């Protein structure tokens, strides 16, 4: 949880009024830039009111792996990029330990705005509702159509909820890649369900390494797609 400040508030205000990113070259970049710009202008749920900006996904043009998290956090909200905060650093390290470079994947979130509750000088993370997940589904579908991954990785229960369109227990589904025909999701791809990296940050210190190694073991199942 990050303390708010006048400087942070000013940074959020400045980024809200900033012009959209310039359109990039290439079909993949054009389609992604167009989807990002359209998402920035939509008001399908109220989360945009307090967020600094829409945080869309990013990653490699030709990749078989899409990683889906829950929502942007405080650092992502300020920077406009997914997984650049503490959880992102855990994810980057775990991917490297699994033999996968983040730059060879596409990373996004089920919900595109930071949901939080101001509490004193802090911004307290709040879990997205089913309505908010559903409102952002169109953008996740656009990303899936553009990237066309062979496997999607649902990082945590919210991402699994978005992918399967129903409540999905992480503990019951993690540890194996579910073939597309069995998963039967709108992603039309194989699915791997695992924990969100922020789970590792919250784990008791004496258990953290064991949880981390299990997370890496899950990610190693993606090696066949690299």
Structure description:
With 226 residues, this protein is of the alpha/beta class. It has a single domain (6-12, 25-225), classed as Uracil-DNA glycosylase-like domain (Uracil-DNA Glycosylase, subunit E, 3-Layer(aba) Sandwich). The chain is 44% helix and 14% strand. It has helices spanning 6-16, 27-41, 74-79, 86-97, 130-147, 157-164, 170-173, 180-183, 197-202, 205-220; strands at 58-59, 65-69, 106-109, 116-119, 122-125, 151-155, 177-178, 190-194. The strands form two sheets. A six-stranded mixed sheet has the order 1-3-2-6-8-7, with helices on both faces.
Approximate shape: globular
CATH superfamily: Uracil-DNA glycosylase-like domain
Number of domains: 1
Q: Uncertain runs with pLDDT below 50, 5 residues or more? A: 1-9, 16-25
The description of the largest β-sheet is:
6 strands, mixed
Strand order in the largest sheet: 1-3-2-6-8-7
| Helix/strand structural class | alpha/beta
CATH topology (fold) name: Uracil-DNA Glycosylase, subunit E
- Determine the mean pLDDT: 88
Strand content: 5-15%
Give helix and strand order, one letter per element, not per position.
Answer: HHEEHHEEEHEHHEHEHH
Distance between the amino and carboxyl termini = 34 Å
